[in-house]
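Sanity check. The docking grid for S-adenosylmethionine depends on where the pocket ends up, so I'm generating a full predicted complex first rather than guessing from homology. Inputs follow.
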Amino acid sequence: MASTRSSIKIDGASETQTRAIGMFINSCNSFADVLTASKKVLSEQQANLTFNDPRLEAKIFVEYAFNKTSMQLITQSDKPLCVGGKKKLVTALSKRILGYPVAYIVGCQPFWTLNLRVSEHTLIPRADSEIVVETAISLPLSNHANVLDLGTGTGAIALAIKSECPHWLVTGCDFKQEIIELAEANAILNNVDVAFVLSNWFSAIAVTQAYDLIVSNPPYVESNSVWLKQGDVRFEPSSALTSGIDGLDDIKHIICEGAQFLNNGGYLLLEHGHKQAGMIQQMLQETGYTEVTTKQDLNGLDRVTLGRWLPNN
Ligand SMILES: C[S@@+](CC[C@H](N)C(=O)[O-])C[C@H]1O[C@@H](n2cnc3c(N)ncnc32)[C@H](O)[C@@H]1O
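Predicted complex below; grid placement will be based on this.
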């Protein structure tokens, strides 16, 4: 993965293309023009790169570059385009046609009902992880439940849970200071009260601190997976994605260590790859968790597995 990423020089390799895009964008006179031109630039590269939707991406980039809402793009369609906005758009398009993720370019990503800042230090939150939030908030926990989100990244899961269950005490942890600062910034931005702790999994979590629920979307991709060479993941840190040859190293650690941080009756809820449910169910059962269940996403794929720690029963 590292070699793939280092072989892509966003600024260097795109010089000729950037000049061509610059001439194209500079010839535009209105938001309508610049939207069409951006869509054209993105569509022409679609054969080489996996774009979701050039039209949508063009709109996101134009709004970002000119700092306008979608409504302003319509109501201010006659306004002259500022030079700074055009430059910002050219840079954004030049990065995007080399595959750089939209979220990293514009610096934010929606998740649940939140708008989150993102950075290259951690994963771009995925809609897939909303199933973790849905499952967590549907659990029969007390009004003042104590919840831990391990490997919180942008804080996506922790903040979404807290936004839905404001009486729960929610803590997020991650192992890099830059990530903790990003999650804290997202808590302020979204006005949600979550504490974030620098911790290598449980290393800075006190054993006396018992949780009613531990959630985690840990790294779970096999270290030699071909998937790491495709799309956005090429640009995301492997520390957020991979976990040993079978992708299960961190999950094993969390399952084994997690039990001593759970209250009697507490839950462990893990996001995982769609082929890993069987292994994870087995690990949970062998460690002594009960009520082990797996939930599927909208495509019917196994995506989260839940176990309950009930040693006193
Ligand atoms: C798949 S990402 C999930 C991020 C976030 N929870 C989300 O769903 O968007 C995994 C996260 O685990 C973190 N992580 C990796 N190793 C860790 C460790 N040893 N201790 C704590 N966090 C770790 C990564 O930094 C990354 O933020």
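Relevant for the grid: The chain is about 40% helix and 15% strand.
Also worth noting: Strands lie at 108-111, 114-117, 146-150, 169-174, 195-198, 211-216, 262-271, 290-296, 302-309.
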